[in-house]
Amino acid sequence: MAKMLRRQCAFCPEDEECSIMYIAEGQNLAVHQDCLLYSSGFVESEEHNPENLDIRFDVASVVNELKRGRRLICNFCRKRGATVGCEVKTCRRSYHYFCALCDDAAIETDEVHGIYRVFCPNHDPDRKNNLYDEDSKRERSPITVQSSSAKKKMIVKEKIAEDSLEALRKKQERQKVRVEFLRKCKRAGLLDEIFEEMLDTLHLAQEKLMDDSTPDAVYEETVISLFDCGLFENILASAHSGNLLSLPQAVF
């Protein structure tokens, strides 16, 4: 029976798990090793020799698994070919292997005993809020290994979370500065003057919008300025929701 041949991507580091691929010469067929190992309906060749990993998969078995995957939709990318299913039998979630990593699925690996399992986020045994059956949890192998790809995804997500917190902190600092500035203006007796200037600006904007001779560029710039300040949009939304004005239906 024809076998898949083991090859490694020349561009990837030697210790990178996803760099290992298997090809079928003459059939234009190439697959990642991890995509094979974690596919739910696939088993290694009965002739598998742990001391010789160069040939370990039957071409016919790989083709059959590909056919099975055409009927399955990935829970993450919504495309067909999702052969990696959640280990919990009652769960219907299926993935492509790398989509499972992106969706924070738990990867369980025990190469000695040939165990390659995937648990969707809802059934991750290591999460406190998982829906995984306790009896099944006691039976599972305790060895859990994250691939380097999963670790990279986790680092990226942590960086995004840190950047979001930093942006929120800066926004809060700007708000504090603005509030303190207005308090100082109030203590200095400048609020009346500031609001008079604001009213003058609004009156000028009103004149531009009411004047039919206003150039289109000036008209658009005035409208954009009114909405950018936030006050105009809030007043329109409040008036519309309270039926205080007869406004046309619009999305503000």
TrEMBL record:
The keyword Metal-binding applies. It is found in: Nucleus. InterPro entries: EPHD, PHD-type_Zinc_Finger, Znf_PHD, Znf_RING/FYVE/PHD. Residues 6-124 form the PHD-type domain. The keyword Magnesium does not apply. Its main location: nucleus. Coiled coil: none annotated. This is PHD finger protein 11-like isoform X3. It comes from Gekko japonicus (Schlegel's Japanese gecko).
